[in-house]
Write a structure and sequence with these properties.
about 160 residues; alpha+beta; 8 strands; elongated; binds iron/sulfur cluster
Amino acid sequence: MKQEITEFAEDTIIGFTRAPPDSDFESAIVIGAPSLEMLEGLTRQIKMYLTTKGHFAEEVSSIEEGIDIKRLATSASLGAIGKSTLVITPEFGPRARFSVILTDAVIDVDEPREFDFCKDCNACIEACPAGAITDSGYDRAACEHTRGNICVLCIAACPVGKGK
Ligand code: SF4
Ligand code: SF4
């Protein structure tokens, strides 16, 4: 089943991890894509596949209580949290959008992968006009103040996955 789901990926990324212990599900399938359109299409496709195999499959979003999509994406070995506090993936840098499907199907989890993207890079910190990214973390209030003007300069500045 894992092999078949992975084959749906094409220009997207798919990782597998355990579902949160307080959920009624066994596995979490984390999907990352560079556009919302691709993400929604692939999420639908995988949900339909699981359903036709007789499994429950539920898409969850980060606004739902108890679901931490960033944590699931990193535990599915899709990437690591960068200095910008975004999930950085080798394929798309911080430019991937994620969805999560929880299912009762028991699927092997992905082996952990080590990532070391940031090292001496400070491009996101230097690009941020609000000083919202510092060594001590991310200041949401400062960021949201500037994001009213649709600022994604930290994402644009990240060299990982650029041009892919
Ligand atoms: S979105 Fe803009 S203001 Fe917010 S952290 Fe990124 S660069 Fe800074
Ligand atoms: S811009 Fe540099 S420091 Fe910031 S998340 Fe990307 S790699 Fe890490």
